[in-house]
Write a structure and sequence with these properties.
This protein has one domain: Methane Monooxygenase Hydroxylase, Chain G, domain 1 (Up-down Bundle). The chain has three helices and no strands. With 93 residues, it is mostly helical.
Length: 93
């Protein structure tokens, strides 16, 4: 099942990001030079963006599949929900 594979992928990525965050905390505690910390912050930020895109892709697939089975009125609501979620994501990304 595609959705289950994507869920596992997201969870694996989030666990790696969690490790990156702990590494960043250690770097700050140990007084690692700022440029090295910023490099790791950039890597963690890129990883979060990638997770976000995988989730957006999965959500879009779910919305489209779900809306096919719904009446036209509900289909519009499903798409509006997706648009709201995307708008929030874009504002935060």
């Amino acid at each position: 099942m595609e959705i289950e594979r994507q869920k596992k992928e997201v969870l694996l990525r989030l666990k790696k990001i969690e490790g990156q965050m702990r590494g960043l905390q250690r770097m700050v505690e140990e007084g690692v030079p700022c440029q090295d910390i910023l490099t790791q912050v950039a890597a963690a930020t890129a990883a979060m963006k990638k997770v976000g895109m995988v989730i957006v892709q999965t959500y879009l697939e779910e919305c489209l599949n779900k809306s096919k089975k719904e009446p036209a009125v509900r289909r519009k609501e499903v798409l509006e929900e997706f648009q709201k979620a995307m708008s929030r994501y874009i504002d935060y990304a």
